[in-house]
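User: Just a sanity check before I run the rest of the batch. Below are the structure tokens for the first item. I only need the designed sequence back.
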């Protein structure tokens, strides 16, 4: 049976990615549960301050949720690359990604140089 030989470094990074993926999944599930509860059980009495605070919280949650979803997608893609053996190669230039960069950002698909190119044309979304 062919076995993918993973280096200890790759195994460590895979563990980090799986852990983070589990955290993010839990967060997203929690949020989905909270949203359901909020619509099913609206509080009887709300004063204006509570509503305003609640709205602000919802906006923050939505942004956090969107970034959690995006991060989870990057992690899933990274885990897929771990599975097919292309993990650690830049998805643009094919060069190996620096190990220190992988430890800092295990889900990154690009080397530092390509990441800079990717970030330049994209307008920051705020
Ligand atoms: Zn590259």
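Assistant: Here's the designed sequence for the first item:
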């Amino acid at each position: 049976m062919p076995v993918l030989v993973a280096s200890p470094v790759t195994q460590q990074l895979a563990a980090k990615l799986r852990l983070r993926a589990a955290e993010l999944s839990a967060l997203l599930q929690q949020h989905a549960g909270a949203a359901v509860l909020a619509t099913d059980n609206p509080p009887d009495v709300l004063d204006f301050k509570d509503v305003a605070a609640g709205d602000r919280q919802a906006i923050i949650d939505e942004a956090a949720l969107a970034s959690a979803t995006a991060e989870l997608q990057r992690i899933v893609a990274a885990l897929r690359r771990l599975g097919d053996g292309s993990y650690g190669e830049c998805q643009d230039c094919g060069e190996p990604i620096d190990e220190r960069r992988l430890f800092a950002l295990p889900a990154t698909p690009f080397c530092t140089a390509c990441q800079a190119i990717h970030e330049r044309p994209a307008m920051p979304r705020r």
